[in-house]
Amino acid sequence: MAEVTLENVTKVFPGDVVAVSDVTLHIADKELLVLVGPSGCGKSTTLRMVAGLEELTRGTIRIGERIVNDVPPKDRDIAMVFQNYALYPHMTVYKNMAFGLKLRKYPRAEIEERVNQAAVLLGIQDLLDRKPKALSGGQRQRVALGRAIVRQPAAFLFDEPLSNLDAKLRVEMRAELSKLHRRLGTTMIYVTHDQVEAMTLGDRIAVMNDGIIQQLAEPLQLYDRPINQFVAGFLGTPPMNFMSGRVEEDAGKILFNEGSAKIELPSRVRQAMGAVSGREAVFGVRPEDISIGDGSAVIRAKVNVLEPLGDEMIVYLSTDYHDLICKAPSHQQVAVDDLVGLNFNIDKAHLFDPESGKNVSLTQPGQSQA
Q1: What is the residue-wise DSSP string for 272-292?
Q2: Which of 178, 180, 244, 251 lies at a 20 to 30 A Cα distance from 198?
Q3: Angle ∠(228,233,236) on CA atoms, nearest 5
Q4: Torsion of CA 336, 342, 347, 353, to 10 degrees
Q5: Which residues are CB-contacts of 28 (< 8 A; sequence separation ≥ 6)?
Q6: 218 to 34, 90, 140: CA distances (angstroms)
Q7: Three-state SS for 307?
């Protein structure tokens, strides 16, 4: 078990392509940190640099107290679990799990003990004599996990390990990974593009874009207090709604004018923004913070599409100027082409600067540094 620290880590590929830019992170001992972001944001490159599979251009990586910049992958005391499992097809499950220990000349009795313990932990003790082709995707992923566990490393590195599984198995394996982390009590760094995985697995989440960590915080802080428009829009299913417009003041009230209606904003906006009248802004509100109301609602919208999801439904709407998505109870009396009123939970709304993307409605936003 060990802490993992990245200090000003940068990776530049040929052609001056900056994949990772000045990343500083501290992953505490026994913590599960998730790196999340869209494809090409630099998260896998960051993980591969920690593993030693990619050289740093600049910066320092420590595992425990040891700087590992020039340490070969096999000597870094880490174990990596890949997206494609990387199992040897001609070997049994037992031999796949034992292979790394045999290379390191562990005694046969210790290898057998470690493999059997890991197999019981993962519920694959009845599969040890099978070969990978006789296993399901979920079973293969468990074998890949088992091969990492028997190493008893200082840290586990996961590179999108669930992306090849179907939706049901992904949910099951997320729960298994969470339990596994609690049982092993080992430092883990987990890379994914799936924000649901990030929110459910991570002790903390680092949201990346364009090789930069946009925000690092606990899951609920990221969700409730996004530091910028990218983080706000990336986390959440369906994503946050954004409306461009102008902030106005009228009779002591602060209003957001989206074009067809004016939405009153809380007084905290003045505290955070200072002089606000006439300022261009982007209003952000999550689908669950929009409700379909009556004639007294602040804004009118047309219903375009309904998506029933059992206990709730997703409602796609449009005003004269913007498209919106809200979550509504499944029993809500609404139909396509209806003209409905919308109310907003203003206390949960945000304002963003249209140029920088910064959340200007928070006086103390979540931190973006490690």
Answers
A1: HHSS-TTEEEEEEE-GGGEEE
A2: 244
A3: 125
A4: 80
A5: 3, 187
A6: 10, 42, 31
A7: strand
Q: Would you state the torsion angle of the CA atoms of residues 200, 203, 209, 212, taken in this order, to the nearest 10 degrees?
A: 180
The CA-to-CA distance between both ends of the chain, in Å, stands at 20
Check if the beta carbon of residue 168 is closer than 8 Å to that of residue 176: no
Q: Is 356 exposed, middle or buried (0-12, 13-18, 19+ CB in 10 A)?
A: exposed
Q: What is the pLDDT along the chain (370 residues), one digit of tens a residue?
A: 689 999 999 999 999 999 999 999 999 999 999 999 999 999 999 999 999 999 999 999 999 999 999 999 989 999 999 888 788 999 999 999 999 899 889 999 999 999 999 999 898 999 999 999 999 888 998 899 999 999 999 999 999 988 888 888 888 888 888 988 998 899 999 999 999 999 999 999 999 999 999 999 999 999 999 999 999 999 998 999 999 999 988 887 888 998 888 888 877 776 776 666 778 999 999 999 999 986 567 899 999 999 999 899 999 999 999 999 999 999 888 999 999 999 999 889 999 999 999 998 876 544 444 4
Q: For the chain, what's the residue count?
A: 370
Q: pTM above the 0.70 mark?
A: yes
- Please enumerate, as own/partner, the contacts of 217-222 that have beta carbons within 8 Å and a separation of 24 or more: 217/366, 217/367, 221/366, 222/366
Task: Note if the bond before 239 is cis, omega within 30 degrees.
Answer: no
Tell me the C-alpha distance between 117 and 121, whole Å.
Answer: 6
**Tell me, what amino acid is at 147?**
R
Return the closest-CA partner of residue 78 out of 117, 41, 48, 108: 48
Residues 6+ apart with CB under 8 A from 46: 6, 9, 11, 20, 23, 35, 191, 208
CA torsion 157→31→286→208, rounded to 10°? -40
* Cα 196–Cα 352–Cα 316 angle in degrees, nearest 5: 55
Distance CA 43, CA 52 (A): 14
32-36 and 204-209 as β-strands: parallel, antiparallel, unpaired?
parallel
Q: Among 353, 58, 18, 33, which residue's Cα sits nearest to residue 207?
A: 33
Contact between 26 and 189 under an 8 Å Cβ cutoff? The reply is no
